[in-house]
Amino acid sequence: MLAWIVINLIVFLVVMIITGLIIPQILLIAFRKNLFDDIDARKIHHGTIPRLGGIAFFPAILFSIMLMFGIGRMYVPGYIVEVIPTTVTGFFFIICAVIILYLVGIADDLVGVKYRAKFIAQILASLLVVAGGIYMDNLHGFMGLHNLPLAIAVLFTILLMVFITNAINLIDGIDGLASGLSAIACVFYGGIFFLKGYYMFSMIAFATLGAMVPFFYYNVFGNVRKHSKIFMGDTGALTIGLILSALSIRITRIEDAVYSYNMAVAAFAPLIIPCFDVVRVYIHRLKAHHNPFLPDKIHIHHKLLALGLKPRYAMPAIVAASFLVALINYWLSIYINITALFAFDLAMWLLTNMALSRLIRRREICMGKKLYE
Questions:
Q1: Is residue 179 part of a domain?
Q2: Which H or E element spans position 131?
Q3: Is the dihedral of CA 147, 149, 154, 157 positive or negative?
Q4: Is residue 294 part of a domain?
Q5: What long-range pairs does 129-132 form, CB within 8 A, spacing at least 24?
Q6: In which domain, by residue range, is 32 found?
Q7: In degrees rounded to 5, what are phi and psi of residue 147?
């Protein structure tokens, strides 16, 4: 176990260093070639900012993991024996799936890709993950259900992966939010996999965390005037979204232990805020007779901005809330049925949004103008 702690730490540091070295080069190329994020009515940023930061994620993650494969094979006793039987097949299929969305994301960030094409790519990527043996065939007691027939499990997994991937993509609306929420999920997933003995997947989680740290710095603390600020773009959001969705699905295949947290809760609790938010946004768009797949300004972070919070305060508030929600869910899942826990989470989400909406309306009345659509 000590060897795996060292391996995870090295992977985290290697990815962090590589990403930190690549991002300045991406910034340099973006400014030389005028590759910037378009500014429109729904964007809250000002100035020319590249949106190609996500290009650094996948190469850095893959390089570090492949490097540790080689080092582990040569110097860590039992490394291959521990890894190959349970995780390598799924890992390779995840890599193939990520490559698809990585390329689609690059194309979208450079020339634009229609949302229908992106959905098709997400479905194909999800199919690859399922082909690698990673699918959700157990609901762990949700709505009284446990084992699912294979056909239903496969279909449900594909829908769930596409949903989570888009949730991460759509929550990327203010500096540091998508990367901050993703980092929180990586910490929980890495810890769970490590404690349960799934060291290969813990390495993937900590490698992804390593990519989030330097990007978070450039995204949040970068200076537009000094050309040091960058967005992850669809390349980063789709890549990270798929990795998190695959890791969450893999966690559900770990058997529940007696007197331990529910594995379905462990899988999805760190993603509650982005997942609940995207459902609320889709419903809002449909009620307003808008295309549910086109962007707007009605996400949870837009509500906080409408209340007068600046992005640098709204972001840590949402990230901290996500961390606390995950912790509370892990703890309650030991004592409360998963269905009741889901109902509790949903009720808290609805009450929070209702409270925010009332506060926004009061502020709109006081200021005499519309602050939130």
A1: yes
A2: helix 115-131
A3: negative
A4: yes
A5: 129/90, 129/93, 129/94, 129/97, 129/157, 129/161, 129/242, 129/245, 129/246, 129/249, 130/154, 130/157, 130/158, 131/93, 132/89, 132/90, 132/91, 132/92, 132/93, 132/94
A6: 2-367
A7: -70, 140
CB 199 within 8 A of CB 193: yes
The pLDDT value recorded for residue 290 is 76
Q: Which two tokens stand for residue 159?
A: 């829908």
For residue 109, is it within any domain? yes
Contact, 132 vs 94, CB < 8 A?
Answer: yes
What is the number of domains present in the chain?
1
In the chain, which residues have pLDDT < 70?
Answer: 1, 37-47, 75-87, 258-259, 293, 295, 371-373
Alpha carbons 43 and 37: distance in angstroms, whole number: 10
Residue 207: Cβ within 10 Å count: 26
Token output for 270: 């760190």
CA pair distance 335, 333, nearest whole angstrom: 5
- The pLDDT, as a whole number, for residue 318 is 96
Q: What is the pLDDT of residue 232?
A: 93
The three-point CA angle 349-350-354 to 5° equals 120
CA 293 to chain centre: 18
CB-CB neighbours of 291 under 10 Å: 10
Q: Would 372 be classed as within a structural domain?
A: no
